[in-house]
Amino acid sequence: DRSIKIAPSILAADFANFGAECAAIEAQGADWVHVDVMDGHFVPNLSFGPATCAAIRPHIKGVMDVHLMISPVDPYIDAFAAAGADILTAHVEAGPHIHRTLQAIRAAGCKAGVALNPGTPAEAVAHLLDLTDLICVMTVNPGFGGQKFIDMSDKIKALRAMIGDRPVHIEIDGGVDANTAPSVAAAGADVLVAGSAVFKGGSVSDPAPYGENIRAI
Ligand code: DX5
Ligand code: ZN
C-alpha cells in the first residue's frame, strides 16, 4: 500500500558504509531514513550520536527520522537539530518532562515525535497531541534490531481515535516485515520502520534486494 511510508532503520545497515547505504535505500524506494540513537542507559545498547547523523545527512535526499533512545534528551536536542534531523523523536519514558522536550524540539526547528514503549499505554500522550507531529509505537522493547514483533493493534487504534483530524503520523517500530505489516497498517499506522526486513540479502554493491524487500512490506 503506497500510502504507507517505509522508513528503513540503518541500524541494520553496514556501519562502515552509512552514506552509500542511505543512498541505496532511497534509490530502492525508501520514503524516510530512520536513524536509531542509543545511549547504553535508556536502552541496553550503544549505537551512535549527532556526529554520525551530521556525517550521513548529505547522503539523504529526503527525511532523516531520528529516534532518540536516550535519557536525558534535552541537552542534546540542539546538537541533533544542527546535525540536520528533520524529525526528532523522544521517548515518553525518558524523563519527567516530555511536554517540555517536545516544545524544545519544535523550537529547534524539527518536527517533534514521541515514542511509546510496549508497556506504556496510549493515554500517556493524551495531553501531548497538539505538541507532536508523530507518535512512534514500539512493537519491540527498544535496544536491538531483529527482535520478535509484539502486537500493539489495540494501542494503534486507540491512538488513531485520540488523534482525530490532527496531522499526526503513527509510526510503528520493531519487528515489522511482510507478515506483520498488514495488521499495523489496518490498525491505523502510516509509517513503518523496518531494519532487518529491508537490509536482508542485499548490500551497497547489490542493492536490488532492498527494493524487493521494501515492496514486499
Ligand atoms: C529498536 C529500534 C528499531 C529497530 C528496527 O530499538 O528502534 O528501529 O532497529 O529493527 P527491526 O526491524 O530489525 O526490528
Ligand atoms: Zn527506531
UniProtKB/TrEMBL annotation:
Gene3D superfamilies: Aldolase class I (3.20.20.70). It comes from the Bacteria. It comes from Sulfitobacter brevis. Keywords: Carbohydrate metabolism, Cobalt, Isomerase, Manganese, Metal-binding, Zinc. A divalent metal cation binds at H34, D36, H67, D173. Its EC number is 5.1.3.1. Catalyzes the reversible epimerization of D-ribulose 5-phosphate to D-xylulose 5-phosphate. Belongs to the ribulose-phosphate 3-epimerase family. The active site is at D36, D173. Its cofactor is Fe(2+); Zn(2+); a divalent metal cation; Mn(2+). Binds 1 divalent metal cation per subunit. Pfam families: Ribul_P_3_epim (PF00834). One of its GO terms (cellular component) is cytoplasm. Substrate binds at S9, H67, G143, F144, G145, G146, D173, G174, G175, G195, S196. The keyword Transport does not apply. GO terms for molecular function: D-ribulose-phosphate 3-epimerase activity; metal ion binding. The keyword Cell membrane does not apply. The lineage of its organism: Bacteria, Pseudomonadati, Pseudomonadota, Alphaproteobacteria, Rhodobacterales. This is Ribulose-phosphate 3-epimerase. Pathway: Carbohydrate degradation. Coiled coil: none annotated. It catalyses: D-ribulose 5-phosphate = D-xylulose 5-phosphate. One of its GO terms (biological process) is pentose catabolic process. It is an enzyme of class 5 (isomerase).
